[in-house]
Amino acid sequence: MSIRVVVAGDHQLVLEAFAETLNGTNGLDVVGLATTFEAVLPAVQRHRPTVLLLGESTMGGKALHAATEVRSHHPTCGVALMVGSATPSVVDRAVAAGALGVVPKTARLPQLITTLVGVAGGCLTVDPGLLRTPAAGETVLSVRETDVLRLTAGGATVKEIAGELYLAAGTVRNLTSAAIKKLGGRNRFDAARIAAECGLL
């Protein structure tokens, strides 16, 4: 099964060349392009990609807002951010906005492909050296744990969550257990309540 990708950036010609390079590589299939902030969400809605590859400096500096908007409306679409300089603060902001992958523009093609494949699988794919160490006592949920708790808060069953996020039911249970442990909840609904009260959803 191919990994469907929408690529967003400023320049049509550059995007088309980029799409041509990615198409067919490691099962990647570029299904859409977006050259403005306003075009990103409609492109994701229309093409239903597995991954949105988003240029950080594109769309008038609204890339992080676009990432958050896409994750909110289409939680099954992973977001990878291509940045000018991958520093810990940039990565921190990108992950907070919902991105699962961050790759510098200086990266070679194999690194970009690895990032897209990782994001498609729901994995946080970032250079470990760039990830911020949480402060003592700070609770950090993964993007997938947040997705599961958000759907749980809406009353979804494990089976419904698995279908919505394209995950196995066992994976949903593992993510739920991890989130319950991090938040100290009695069950998944209690964990969802705690996460909502802490502003984590």
TrEMBL record:
Domain HTH luxR-type residue range list? 134-199
> Listed GO molecular functions?
DNA binding
Pfam short name (any one): GerE
The segment(s) forming the Response regulatory domain are 4-120
Read off the InterPro entries from this record: CheY-like_superfamily (IPR011006), Sig_transdc_resp-reg_C-effctor (IPR016032), Sig_transdc_resp-reg_receiver (IPR001789), Tscrpt_reg_LuxR_C (IPR000792), WalR-like (IPR039420), WH-like_DNA-bd_sf (IPR036388)
Instruction: Report the superkingdom from the record.
Output: Bacteria
Q: What keywords appear on the UniProt entry?
A: DNA-binding
Q: Which GO terms describe its biological process?
A: phosphorelay signal transduction system; regulation of DNA-templated transcription
Name of the molecule in the record: Two component transcriptional regulator, LuxR family
Organism field:
Streptomyces venezuelae (strain ATCC 10712 / CBS 650.69 / DSM 40230 / JCM 4526 / NBRC 13096 / PD 04745)
